[in-house]
Amino acid sequence: MPVTRGSFGPLVGAIDEGTSSTRFIVFSANTSTVVASHQVPIKQICPKEGWVEQDPNEILSAVLASIEKTKDILQTKDIDAQELAAVGITNQRETTVMWDSITGQPLHNAIVWLDARTAPTVDQLLDKLPNRLKSYLQPLCGLPLSPYFSALKIRWLLDNIPSIKEAVENRRCLFGTIDTWLIWNLTGGREGGVHITDVTNASRTMLMNIQTLKWDSTLCRFFNIPLDILPKICSSSEIYGYIKKGSLANIPISGCLGDQHAALLGQMCFKQGQAKSTYGTGCFLLYNTGHNRVESTHGLLTTVAWKLGNASAVYALEGSVAIAGAAISWLKDNVNLIDDASQVEELANRNMHTADVYFVPAFSGLYAPYWRPDARGVICGITEDTDRAHIIRATLEAVCYQTRDILEAMYKDCGIALNRLKVDGGMTQNSLLMQLQADLCGIPVARPKMVEITALGAAMAAGFADGVKVWDIENTQETFVDTFQPVITEEERDSRYEKWKMAVQRSFGWDT
Question: Which of 208, 215, 247, 481 could cross-link with 202 by S-S, CB 3.0 to 4.6 Å?
Fold first, then answer.
C-alpha cells in the first residue's frame, strides 16, 4: 500500500501533454484536489502555411522537466515523490510520431493534429471510394476521411520521408500518438520501453475497429500501413509498465486517455446523455452514449469515451472544432488587435453586441459538423462603424456558435436535448464567453471551480487501475460549479444563429 501523507491521503500524478504546454500535476485521491503542479510551454513549428509540427524530443524533455519541478514543490510540503501510487497520462490526440526503435530517435517532427498538409492525400484516397464518400469507412472506425486523423499523417510520412520508408522496410520503425511516445520513453525507450496505446487514442487513428477495439486489417490495407509499426491497444486503466529513471523511478503508469476523453471522465460524465465541452486551442464536445455506439448521420464522430480495465467500453459522440483559443492567438500574433489574451474579456465587454459582425475562423478548414477542408476564415458584416471590440466579441461568439452547431447535430443524432453543458479548459476563465455560450445555445453552462479537469481524469483512471486501487471513481464528488443561465430570448438567439450559418456558407470553397 502507498504511504499516506497527512490530510492528502494517497497521491496520484498526471502528465497532461497538450498542444501548447505540458503539465505534471499531483492530486489527492481522497479529495481530487491539486497538491502540486508545474507547467512547461511547447513550441509549434510551421514550415509552410497549414503545416504544424512539434519536436518529439522537446515534448519529452518538457514532461521530464515538469516532473522534476513538481518533485521540488512536493519537497517543500515534506512529501517524497516516491509516495505517488501511480501516474496517468493524457495527451493531445491524433498528433503523430514515428521513430527508430534502435536509436530511439524521431524520424521526423511530430505532425500535430490540426496540420492540414494531408488534404491532397485525402483527395487521392477519396478517388478509391464509391462516390468519393467521406463517410465510407465510418461504420468500421467511426470517423470520416479527414486530414485530422493519424492514419493520413502516417501515410504522408511514409510517402514523403525516405528515412521512414527505410526504417519500415528494416522493421525498426515505430508509430505512436503522443501517449505512446511518452510511455515508450518513460518505461525504458530502446532498453525495453513498452509500445502501447489506449483505446481512446487508438480510436482517433482511423485504423482501429470501433466495435472490436483492435487494429483492423481492412483499414490498414486501405491506407497501406503495416500492422507491425502500430502499438498494442490496451484499456484506459491498467498497469502498462513502470517508470525507469528519475524522481518517479519504479512508479507504475496505469492510466492513459486522450485529452478530451480524460476531460469527460474528470467532469464525472458517467451517465448516458451527459456531455462536456473543452475550450483550448480547439473546442471539443463529447456526449456519453453509454455502451451503445451511435453512428452519426449529421457530421459527428463515434469515439471510445474510455474503457476502465476489464469493464465494457463506454462510447461517445464527438464534435470537434479546430479553432477556439487559436483564434485569440491569431488576434494577438497576426493582426495585433490585442497585446495579451487577458485583455479579451474587458475589450469585448466594451460593446454589448457585435454590430452584426460574424467571424468564421476556418483557418485550415471546418471540422464538425461540416468537414469542409476547403473552407477558409471570413469576417462578415463589417461597416465603417466596426471597431476592434466588435471583432473581438465576434471571435468569442464564433466559439459559441460552433458549439451550437455541434449540439444541434447531437440532438438530430440522439433525439435528446441537452439540459446542461459542463465546460472546462483554459478559455472557461473568460466569464463573458461562458455567458455568451449559455445565451447562444439556450441552456445553462456549468463551470467547475477546479480547472485541471483533463489531468484529473487521467489521475482517476491511473488510481482506479487493478494493482493500484487508491481512487474510488464511483464515489468521487463533482467539483462545485459556477452556472451561467441564458438571458436572451429564443427569437434573438435563433435570429443570430441564422446569420452565423449564412457566414459559414460564405467560408466554403476558398481553398481550391
Answer: 208
Q: Is 9 helix (H, G, I), strand (E, B) or coil?
A: strand
Task: Provide the pLDDT for residue 2.
Answer: 46
Mean pLDDT of 247-270: 95
Sheet arrangement for strand 421-424: 301-306, 314-321, 283-290, 275-279, 421-424, 445-448, 481-484
- CA–CA gap between residue 361 and residue 430 (Å, rounded): 19
* Grid cell of 255 as nine digits: 492510466
Compute φ and ψ for 360, nearest 5 degrees.
-105, 105
Q: Among residues 100, 72, 82, which one has the least CA distance to residue 5?
A: 82
CA distance 95 to 100: 17
pTM of the model: 0.88
Cβ–Cβ under 8 Å, residues 460 and 255: yes
Residues paired with 9 in a beta bridge: 5
Question: 10 Å Cβ neighbour count for 92?
Answer: 28
The answer on pLDDT for 390 being more than 70 is yes
Q: How far is CA 148 from CA 52, 93, 365, 480, in A?
A: 12, 10, 10, 34
Task: Find all residues with CB under 8 Å of 236, minimum gap 6, and list them.
Answer: 198, 199, 200, 255, 256, 257, 261, 306, 307, 308, 461
Segment 334-351 shows an average pLDDT of 88
Q: Are 280 and 18 in contact (CB under 8 A)?
A: yes
CA dihedral 491, 278, 444, 505 (to 10 degrees): 10
Mean pLDDT of 426-435: 91
Segment 87-110, tens digit of pLDDT: 999 999 999 999 999 999 999 999
